[in-house]
Design brief:
Elements: H1 2-21, E1 28-36, H2 40-57, E2 61-70, H3 81-93, E3 100-104, H4 105-113, H5 122-130, H6 135-142, E4 151-156, E5 159-163, H7 164-169, H8 181-191, E6 193-194, E7 200-202, H9 213-226, H10 244-258, H11 270-275, E8 281-285, H12 289-296, E9 302-305, E10 315-324, H13 331-341, H14 344-351, H15 372-378, E11 383-385, H16 392-407, H17 413-428
Parallel strand pairs: 1-2, 1-3, 10-11
Antiparallel strand pairs: 3-10, 4-10, 5-8, 5-9, 6-7
Length: 430
């Protein structure tokens, strides 16, 4: 018995000495928060696989990946994206926040403005450039600050989706979507259907003016850019969306509903209604909708084309970025993991294997993007970062309300945009 006790004492003593000397070390935990929406439904399993691999390769690091809520407000998500944002901001403000979390650029802007987000180390930024990241993605993650505040997880920009079956019925070429705004209006009229009482029963085009204000502003911004406009001026310090281009873009929205009547205020809308055959054309929509449509609307004969041009084909680019908490005690370990996650081998699995648009140009050359469905995104001539300011999260709801006000005819187009611009300029001047 004494010998056994002696052996036990010796073993415990040896363990303590090893622990003190650093031979045996406790794992450093890096907390990583995500939520769920219509994209991450497809990419989340791969992310968990990659995190598990990283943890196995790095014995002293543990990336604690948690889906803290299902927040998506889109096609397949449940709950509220604002709830996730509120939870993150509250945790950051009380210094109990995650070491790493993801969010869309518009929703990451408030924590960046509040000083909660750590700028990426130079080696992380340089590696992203070396691996061929799109320049607009870097711009979106910097928001006119000169610093990059994360790495990309998802990227998205818009294209027009249309139902080829309805094109054939209307005598339109199913392989050619509308190229100009004039084409777009004519197609929408031909594709619309009304009953004998003049009630719309199929929308030629679905105008986005309901739902979240950020989404409403974002979808309208594509038309603004196609008219040659932009949200802010080059300095990022003054509103520019109430320009001639902005007026034309918002007037188009109003005319589609009230003049051409290809949509109606009370008509079913968004991707579900498109999948069910209530809508002939819908835009802008993102490439992540392709897997969703293939899963839930398998009989839909889908066509995809560039956003129709007033002066140019253009699309507003958005990024879901993964960022590091400025107050984290494990920033070095967190950035090392994110740098690894964005290396070509891991990035290929995340984007290509899940048929999601890549943030890196070389990956867009993968054969899986050769199909006609992806061409409208991978060959798009003019993707423009929507994140022009760290105050984007405050700006977008104001623009969204202006769009709604004009479409519901509470204000004229110019009045709505000018009022919104005055509010935005007040925010930007602070």
């Amino acid at each position: 018995m004494n010998k056994r006790r002696l052996k036990l004492v010796l073993l415990l003593s040896t363990f303590c000495l090893l622990l003190i000397s650093g031979v045996i070390q406790a794992k450093t935990k890096v907390t990583f928060w995500i939520d769920r929406d219509e994209i991450s439904e497809f990419t989340e399993p791969t992310l968990f696989e990659l995190v598990d691999e990283y943890n196995k390769k790095h014995k002293n690091i543990f990336i604690d990946l948690k889906n803290v809520m299902s927040s998506g407000s889109g096609a397949t998500g449940t709950g509220s994206a604002s709830s996730y944002n509120t939870k993150v901001m509250a945790a950051l403000a009380t210094n109990i926040g995650p070491d790493i979390w993801w969010n869309y650029d518009a929703d990451m802007a408030p924590p960046i403005a509040a000083g909660y987000v750590d700028p990426a180390p130079s080696y992380v930024t340089e590696n992203m450039k070396k691996n061929g990241i799109y320049e607009w993605v870097l711009q979106a993650m910097s928001m006119n600050t000169g610093k990059v505040y994360g790495v990309p997880h998802d990227v998205m920009w818009g294209a027009m989706l249309y139902n080829k079956k309805f094109f054939r019925e209307a005598g339109l070429d199913p392989e050619e979507g509308p190229k100009t705004w004039d084409d777009f209006i004519n197609y929408a009229i031909k594709l619309s259907k009304w009953d004998k009482n003049g009630k719309l029963i199929r929308a030629g085009y679905s105008v986005r003016f309901t739902g979240g204000l950020v989404g409403t502003a974002d979808k309208w911004a594509h038309f603004l850019m196609c008219a040659g406009g932009q949200l802010l001026d080059e300095s990022g310090e003054k509103a520019a969306f109430n320009s001639k281009a902005g007026i034309e873009a918002l007037q188009l929205y109003v005319d589609l509903v009230h003049k051409y009547k290809v949509d109606a205020l009370d008509f079913p809308r968004d991707i579900q209604a498109f999948a069910q055959g209530y809508i002939a054309m819908i835009a802008p929509r993102e490439a992540f909708m392709i897997p969703w449509i293939r899963e839930y609307a398998r009989d839909l004969d889908l066509g995809v084309c560039y956003m129709p041009a007033k002066t140019r084909h253009a699309s507003s680019g958005a990024v879901r970025m993964i960022s590091v908490n400025q107050n984290s005690k494990v920033k070095e370990e967190a950035w090392a993991f994110l740098d690894w996650l964005n290396q070509p081998k891991q990035a290929k699995r995340m984007y290509v294997n899940n048929k999601q648009l890549p943030a890196y140009a070389p990956l867009a050359e993968s054969p899986i993007y050769d199909g006609i469905e992806f061409k409208a995104w991978t060959t798009h001539p003019n993707v423009i970062a929507r994140a022009e300011s760290v105050k984007l999260g405050e700006i977008y709801p104001i623009i969204g309300r202006a769009v709604q006000s004009a479409v519901y005819q509470k204000q004229g187009v110019k009045e709505a945009l000018d009022d919104a611009a005055a509010q935005v300029n007040k925010i930007l001047s602070k």
